Structure formats: structure tokens, C-alpha cells
Amino acid sequence: MLKPKRKTIHLYCPKEHEASVTSVLQKYEINFTINSFDFQTNRGDVVCHYRSYDLSHEQKKILIEATEKGAWVEPLTSYLDRELGFTEIKLVDSSFFLYQKAFSILNSASSKFIKRSFDLILASIAIIMLLPLFILTALAIKLDSRGPVLFKQARTGLFNKEFKVIKFRSMTTDAEKDGAQWATKNDARVTRVGKFIRKTRIDELPQLLNVIKGEMSLIGPRPEREVFIQDLEKSIPYYRFRHSVRPGITGLAQVKYPYGASIEDAEWKHRYDLYYIKHQSFWVDVKITLLTIQTVIFAKGL
């Protein structure tokens, strides 16, 4: 999968977790040793720990001594975040949230103010500039199929509060006559105009109004329906943590991971969503915005 050139990492973890950690590190072709480290012969290498609260007294002593001698010692999840560009959810436990300095988007008043200002300014400018496109899209939808131009659907947002997400209608009006179901690639329920506006992400543009109302952000995890969330949280660790921030029109998962509508796809998107929540900054949002514009221009969507 990923084949970057990396130094060997020396990992300390509880014995009972050696097999699971080994499988993850081998998956990403990372050179490593477990519970074996000689600072004299491995100077400059990275020393990591996993579930440090469960380590033996001797293991903790070794890590402290390595730190004293100048080794770079850090949690394994932090190392993998930096090296992979996403969070490996199979290794996430409570320490990921409780014992690491991060998540400024959650606890920094200045970060929240900057992000909200970014949202309001860009959303307002975008609505004004895209008004002609809104009108043309509305006309195309009306000429192509029966039904309303806009489509509203309940989604789960900040702190698990439901809101109505606004989109240009891209499916037939009876798309869910048999109940809620995942959207799929080449979905037969999608109209002719719908295929184009989904591929270019034009169907998402009315959510700029959700941003103005404070229900959404420009950048963040995509909002999901509660009926799907209840299923996903059964198999995906800490899935509802995504609701600690406002959902986004676009996000890191949308520009880094291809479209998909399965539990496996949801797991991969959750890896990017957790990474984003932990490492969000103004410049990260700018980068995602530019990548999203590129996706729209070159029609890389569904």
C-alpha cells in the first residue's frame, strides 16, 4: 500500500497486544522491533509506546531512560498519524483522546473563532459568485425530472443534534420508497442531471446556507444519517467522535479517499476524519478547500 522510506521504530507495548500491533505495522510496511531496544546501537531511531498505561514497570523504566538519553519517544498513534496522514483506528483507544496535546479545534477559542470567520466569509462570497450557477442548475433539474429543485434530509451534526441538510435534488422523487439505503456508484435512482451535479459536487452547494446558519462548516466530516450511524458505530471505534465538530460540505476524507458506500469505506473515511479533528488548522482548511476546487474542476466526484 504505502512504501515510504522510514527509520526503524522501536515499540514497547503490552504483551497481549503484540500480535495486533504487528499486523498493523506490517500492513504499512514499517520496520520495527517490539519490546527490544538498545539505545547505544540505535541512536537516532524513534521509540514508540502503545497503551503505555498497561506497560510493565520495567518497560516504563526503559522508556524514561531512553527519553533521558535523548531518544525521540512518542505514542505509536502520533507517529503513525505523521507518517500515514490518517489515524489508524484499529490502534485508537482512550489515550488517543485523553493524553495527547491536540484537538485545538475543540478547546481553543481562537481556533474556533478563526474557523467560524473563515466559514462565514467564504460561504457568503461563494453564494454571491455562484448565484448564476444556482439558477442554471435549478432550471436543468426542473426540465430533467419531476419534483422539487432542492432536497432536504435529516442528518446528524454537532453534538449529535439533527438538522436538515440542503442539496440540489439529484435523484428521482421515489428514491427511497423502500426505505433508507446507501447511495452507490452508478446508482439507478440518480437522474441524468443528477449524475453531472454529483460528479462535479454541484449538488452540495446549497449547503452553503447550512454553513451560514451555523449548522455546518465548509470543512469537516461529512454529515451522515442517524439510521446509518447507529449501524456504523457498532463496528467502527469512536465513530460518534466526528460529531464533536460541525460537519462539513467537504473534508479531508472527501479529497483523499475515493467515493464509496460500504462499512469498509466508512472506516477509511473515519481514519481521515479523526486525523482532521486532531490536527485541524487554518492552513489545513485552506489546503482542503483548494483540493476540493480541483476535484470540482476536473469532475473527480461520484
Instruction: Identify the overall geometry.
Output: elongated
What distance lies between the first and last C-alpha atoms, to the nearest angstrom? 23 Å
Number of helices: 13
**How would a crystallographer describe the biggest sheet?**
4 strands, parallel
What would your notes on this structure say?
- By secondary structure, this protein is α/β, with parallel strands linked by helices.
- The protein has 2 domains: 92 residues, 3-Layer(aba) Sandwich (Rossmann fold); 193 residues, no CATH class.
- Helix content is 44%, strand content 12%.
- It is built from 13 helices and 8 strands.
- Helix 1 links the parallel strand 1 and strand 2.
- The radius of gyration is 22 Å and the shape is elongated.
- The chain starts with 8 loop residues before the first strand and ends in a 5-residue tail after the last helix.
- The model has no long low-confidence stretch (mean pLDDT 88).
Observed structural traits:
Rossmann fold; 2 domains; four-stranded parallel sheet; two-stranded antiparallel sheet; 12% strand; elongated
Please specify the SSE layout and strand pairing.
Blueprint: E1 9-12, H1 18-27, E2 32-34, E3 46-49, H2 57-68, E4 72-75, H3 76-84, H4 94-98, H5 104-107, H6 109-129, H7 131-144, E5 150-156, E6 162-168, H8 192-199, H9 208-212, E7 217-219, H10 226-232, E8 248-250, H11 252-256, H12 263-279, H13 282-297
Parallel strand pairs: 1-2, 1-3, 3-4, 7-8
Antiparallel strand pairs: 5-6
Summarize the structure in short:
The protein is an alpha/beta fold and 302 residues long.
